[in-house]
Specification:
- The protein has seven helices and nine strands, in the order αβαβαββββαβαβαβα.
- By secondary structure, the chain is an alpha/beta fold.
- It has a single domain, classed as Methylesterase CheB, C-terminal domain (Rossmann fold).
- The strands form two sheets. It has a seven-stranded parallel β-sheet with strand order 3-4-2-1-7-8-9, with helices on both faces.
- A hairpin with a 5-residue loop joins β5 and β6.
- The two termini are 35 Å apart.
Length: 212
Amino acid sequence: MAESIKRKFVNFKEGIAELMSKISLIAIGSSTGGTEALAAIIPKLRPPLPPIVIVQHIPPNFSRMFAERMNKESVLTVKEGEHGEVLQDNFVYIAPGGLHMALVKNRENKLQLRCFMAPPVHSCRPAVDVLFKSVAELVGDKALGVILTGIGHDGTAGLLEMKAKGSPTLGQDESTSVVYGMPKSAFESGAVDVQVPLDNMALAITSTVNKS
């Protein structure tokens, strides 16, 4: 009897732990039309939220200006990502133009940014796939992946890796995309769980995080 009760208690604790497990990171990729899409999403997001990391195809300097603009319009803290920066809840990190941005873990096992110069991927630097693949490797099913409007197929391979690890994934729908290239590629590859109109994307992100 005692052993049976102990077993039930262990199972109960495991069940509670599973229920309490949360999305601990949101990763977003975008390109053409992405600054407008992000401007429609970020100001609608409300804390508490896990860290949000974003790769938008954007030239150097423009990423900093865009981050500063979003910071003024958002209740979250929005900034250009810096190499070595440890991720914090309720912060949005936008990849610096001209550099790839990925995640690494420091000696305390905390996630931090790696911003680095390397050859372009899919003719892009920063590239969404670089970020998404590092998220898949380090965060697994505790991450939410989002692919927004853009030309080409950057982000598809990385989002597939995230989904293979158990991450929920969202993609912008065709009707609200300036260019239905990246979201289409990801969707047709099977990397996208749900296609979402831009006006509903902030709600979809928040609902997915809260339900996790």
